[in-house]
Amino acid sequence: MTTERAAIFDIDGTLVDTNHLHVVTWWEALRQAGHHVPMRDIHRAVGLSGGDLLDHLLGDDRDPDGDDQLSEAHRTLYATYFERLPALDAAGDLLRTLAGRGWQIVLATSASGAELAALRDAIDADDVIRSVTSADDVAEGKPAPDPVRQARELAGVPSERALFVGDSVWDMRAAVRDGVTPLAVLSGGIPRADLTEAGAHAVYRDPADLLAHLDSSAFAALE
Questions:
Q1: Under a CB-based contact definition with an 8 Å cutoff, are residues 19 and 43 in contact?
Q2: What's the distance, Cα to Cα, between the start and end of the chain in Å?
Q3: Of 5, 31, 64, 189, which is most buried, counting CB atoms within 10 Å of its CB?
Q4: What b/e string do you get for 202-213 counting C-beta neighbours within 10 Å, with b at 16 or more?
């Protein structure tokens, strides 16, 4: 049996404090296209891939011809923040500590391209990140299990040798569907009860809180 272990992390809202930037830029992109969607609804949809997010907010029975324009408007608006995306407290320290304890660090995100590069710059822990799976690498985004499974397969471990840390309901559902134990952080703004109901094994305030409690967490149980 393999002794390898994988620590899989979502990025937005988990390692980098970007969820509310996504809310505002999606709200503006939708507003420009004539869609008036409450920000609270957009917040709950953050973490879905672009097409799934629009299905969730506008309904899958809509005319999808404008989807590419909406997604491009969001990308353009969000890109104005690329040089100042804020990492959450101790995000890089958490990854380095786990890597030092023998964990393979893999990121699983719906971001890609320049956006993913900006997020990695914010985290500033490329020295310990073994690999990344992005929206370009999977057929379906979260809550489908594809991103978590792809990340786990990159690390070469079975589901029982991996943990996944995320901030959204979609993250928790994706991990559960792949058989990986999900841990949640509250830094994305989703209520604890929603994360627990979606399958979170434990919930922490943010990366710093998880780092402070690492020795009593599910990570310690696999070491």
A1: yes
A2: 14
A3: 5
A4: ebbebbbbbbee
Burial 39-58 (b: 16+ CB within 10 A, else e): eeebbbbbbbbbbbbbbebb
Whether this prediction's pTM lies above 0.85 is answered by: yes
- DSSP secondary structure string, 150-209? HHHHHHT--GGGEEEEESSHHHHHHHHHHTPEEEEEGGG---HHHHHHTT-SEEESSHHH
User: Using alpha carbons only, how large is the chain's radius of gyration in Å?
Assistant: 17
* Residue spans of the chain under pLDDT 70: 1-2
DSSP, res 86: P
* Burial category of 196 from C-beta neighbours within 10 Å (exposed 0-12, middle 13-18, buried 19 and up): middle
Q: Which two tokens stand for residue 131?
A: 């690999």
> 215: exposed, middle or buried (C-beta count within 10 Å: 0-12, 13-18, 19+)?
exposed
**Contact, 119 vs 12, CB < 8 A?**
yes
Amino acid at 195: L
- For residue 172, give the nearest of 163, 36, 63 by alpha carbon: 163
The DSSP secondary structure of 109-158, one letter per residue, reads -S--HHHHHHHHHHHT-TTTEEEEE-GGG-SS-TTSSHHHHHHHHHHT--
* Residue whose tokens read 């559960």: 176
Contact between residue 152 and residue 146 where contact means Cβ atoms under 8 Å apart:
no
pLDDT value of residue 32: 97
| Alpha-carbon distance values, 3 to 103, 150, 162, 172 (Å) | 10, 19, 11, 24
